[in-house]
Write a structure and sequence with these properties.
The protein is mainly alpha-helical and 294 residues long. The protein is 49% helix and 4% strand. The chain is built from 12 helices and 3 strands; from the N terminus they run H-H-H-H-H-E-E-E-H-H-H-H-H-H-H. A 3-stranded antiparallel β-sheet has the order 1-2-3, with no helix packed on it. The relative contact order is 0.11.
Length: 294
């Protein structure tokens, strides 16, 4: 019932009570979702909330305690014997190659008045899902913001991890021929950015929201329950490893994930992204056949 807590109020008893509260909240949410017949998402609440509190508390101790001079302003250590639950595995959202081809082949919604393609979330979602899949799982915020296109190569810095990597999460993805019609369709002719999505939606969040609204409709048509944009990224990685035989390190690099074990090595390696883009062509060959070579 308070907006602020002092560090002395963060005790194991408080943390245990908060964890019990989150358990009850989760149980109520599950009951409501079951009543409505909706999907129950994986439980990340406990690990995220308690992990965030732990991080803030430990940062406060680093800032205000001077251990060299014995000045201890925050003496308590409530997390020393308190275990923060690990995150549940996220729901697997990978699609089959057949499902991705179905999305690719879906007809657009057309205006009855003039016969032109309608500007709507359904058509946007269909296109952006394929854009993401064929660009190695590019996130919607990066589609929205990317502004560097040289020849057929998009250079961008992955928003999700740019602040946690020495290379700012740099990525270079070569546009495969199969995507050229979509790239031209959404081209920003002012050259401020690669795509004109920022002209269609005033924020990246609104852009992402429109995509996911449209994907629910796309999912109903192709009979995929609760289709989400992130499924494009999961599908690319899963097909690359399980069906195409791409090694996990290459897939890891293509997704631009942080690898704690390789941080020191990565300082000395200048990436040219050739291997990742070759892997992408193999995945597209598997999914679309010869289409991507046209």
């Amino acid at each position: 019932g308070k907006e602020h807590l002092t560090t002395s109020q963060i005790t194991q008893d408080l943390l245990k009570g908060f964890m019990e509260y989150l358990h009850l909240k989760r149980a109520r949410q599950i009951a409501e979702l079951e009543r409505k017949g909706k999907r129950i998402p994986s439980n990340r609440m406990l690990s995220l909330y308690l992990g965030s509190i732990r991080h803030l508390f430990n940062e406060a101790k680093k800032q205000y305690n001077d251990y060299d001079r014995g000045i201890i302003i925050i003496p308590n250590s409530p997390f020393e014997n308190f275990k923060v639950p690990k995150q549940e595995a996220t729901r697997k959202r990978a699609l089959t190659a057949e499902s991705i081809r179905k999305i690719w082949e879906l007809p657009y919604i057309i205006n009855t008045s003039d016969g032109k393609e309608r500007i709507c979330p359904y058509n946007l979602a269909k296109d952006c899902f394929i854009l993401s899949f064929c660009l190695m799982g590019m996130n919607s915020i990066d589609l929205y913001n990317c502004d560097n296109l040289q020849d057929t190569v998009i250079t961008y810095y992955r928003s999700k991890t740019t602040g946690r990597r020495l290379d700012k999460a740099k990525m270079q993805v070569k546009i495969p021929p199969i995507l050229l019609p979509l790239v031209m369709k959404y081209k920003d002719y002012t050259s401020k950015r690669v795509f004109k999505f920022y002209q269609m939606y005033n924020t990246a969040n609104n852009f992402n929201r429109a995509i996911n609204i449209g994907l629910k409709e796309v999912g109903r048509v192709v009979k995929i329950d609760d289709l989400e944009y992130y499924a494009a990224r999961h599908s690319w990685a899963t097909l690359a490893v399980n069906k195409v035989g791409i090694d996990k390190y290459t897939v890891h690099a293509a997704l631009n994930h942080i690898d704690e074990a390789m941080k020191v090595t990565d300082i000395y390696i200048e990436r040219d992204f050739k291997i990742e883009n070759e892997a992408n062509l193999k995945v597209l060959q598997y999914v679309f056949g010869g289409e991507e070579l046209k």
